[in-house]
């Protein structure tokens, strides 16, 4: 299997994991009192930290090592800061606007990833590649039909900010992959940083949780771990311009979860959007 094929497989797995995480985050408020996005982020990342620690330390005997240069540590810090801002913004949006709208606006991440890879790393994207990304994003809009409506405007802007943060974080992940930094350590560092970054907000603004909410957030953490390991591996295997499009599989997974758990049956526009996304993926793969 080529590196690009591995990257595609990993990013599709990541899309599934993050869709699973989003579903659990939205379900959380339905089984108890409202919980802040900071508290959700802390427990989500705590689960991912446990999983990442187990994977990393179990593999230390296989030759895993820590980054040796300051630039790699700087990229790890950048990946963590941008990623944490993206999580805070996305979790806030998921609690304020429909899950489909929040995730669609968050799916601007591939655009930011390709753009900043070109701006910061000098990786050129062809017109065809940009066209396929635009085509896929158009399909995503047809599926989820996001809108800026009155009091939801701020939440929508937060969802876009989440996409910006994720896009910048993925650029850092790709740069770390070029420098051969271990993927498990990238996830471990980010999870630990996110827990520490969320902890002050949790300590001074903790909301009691029901057993159901605890179980749901455990599921969100597991989904987040799948998403983080998947996206970290994907952007270590391949350049963002060649695989970013497949991150839109998240739209399909989100729609499936909407049908199964929120009774959100897709209309004609949504079905058309699925077909547009699949067409963009097929054209990109053929090229």
Strand and helix layout:
Blueprint: H1 3-28, H2 37-58, H3 70-96, H4 99-106, H5 109-121, H6 127-144, H7 153-178, H8 183-204, H9 211-237, H10 240-243, H11 249-262, H12 268-286
Helix pairs in contact: 1-9, 1-11, 2-3, 2-8, 2-9, 3-4, 3-7, 3-8, 4-6, 4-7, 4-11, 5-7, 6-12, 7-9, 8-9
Walk me through the structure.
By secondary structure, the chain is mostly helical. The protein has one domain (3-286). The protein is 79% helix and 0% strand. The protein has helices spanning 3-28, 37-58, 70-96, 99-106, 109-121, 127-144, 153-178, 183-204, 211-237, 240-243, 249-262, 268-286. Helix 1 (3-28) runs parallel beside helix 11, helix 2 crosses helix 3 (70-96) and helix 5 (109-121) packs across helix 7. The longest helix is centred in the N-terminal third of the chain and has 27 residues, at 70-96. The radius of gyration is 18 Å and the shape is globular.
Regarding quaternary structure, what we see is single chain
Q: For the residues shown, what is the average pLDDT?
A: 83
The domain tally reads: 1
Helix content estimate: over 70%
Number of helices: 12
Order of helices and strands: HHHHHHHHHHHH
**End-to-end CA span:** 17 Å
What is the makeup of the main sheet?
none
According to DSSP, the number of beta strands is: 0
Q: How large is the radius of gyration?
A: 18 Å
Could you list the spans in which at least 5 consecutive residues all have pLDDT below 50?
Answer: none
Beta percentage is under 5%
**Outline, from the CA principal axes?**
globular
Structural class: mainly alpha
């Amino acid at each position: 299997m080529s590196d690009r094929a591995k990257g595609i497989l990993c990013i599709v797995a990541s899309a599934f994991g993050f869709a699973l995480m989003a579903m659990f985050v939205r379900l959380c408020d339905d089984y108890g009192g409202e919980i802040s996005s900071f508290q959700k982020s802390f427990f989500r990342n705590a689960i991912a930290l446990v999983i990442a620690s187990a994977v990393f330390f179990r593999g230390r005997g296989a030759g895993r090592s820590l980054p040796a240069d300051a630039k790699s540590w700087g990229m790890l810090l950048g990946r963590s800061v941008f990623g944490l801002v993206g999580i805070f913004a996305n979790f806030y949006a998921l609690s304020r606007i429909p899950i489909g709208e929040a995730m669609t606006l968050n799916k601007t991440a591939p655009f930011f990833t390709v753009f900043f890879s070109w701006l910061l790393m000098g990786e050129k994207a062809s017109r065809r590649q940009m066209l396929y990304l635009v085509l896929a994003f158009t399909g995503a809009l047809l599926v989820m039909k996001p809108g800026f409506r009155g009091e939801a405007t701020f939440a929508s802007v937060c969802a876009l900010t989440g996409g910006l943060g994720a896009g910048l974080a993925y650029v850092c992940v790709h740069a770390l992959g070029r420098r051969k930094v271990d993927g498990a350590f990238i996830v471990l560092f980010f999870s630990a940083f996110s827990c520490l970054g969320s902890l002050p907000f949790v300590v001074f603004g903790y909301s009691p949780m029901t057993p159901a909410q605890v179980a749901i957030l455990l599921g969100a953490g597991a989904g987040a771990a799948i998403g983080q390991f998947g996206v970290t591996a994907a952007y270590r295997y391949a350049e963002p311009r060649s695989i970013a499009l497949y991150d839109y599989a998240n739209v399909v997974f989100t729609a499936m979860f909407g049908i199964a758990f929120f009774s959100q049956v897709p209309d004609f526009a949504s079905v058309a959007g699925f077909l547009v996304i699949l067409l963009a993926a097929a054209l990109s793969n053929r090229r």
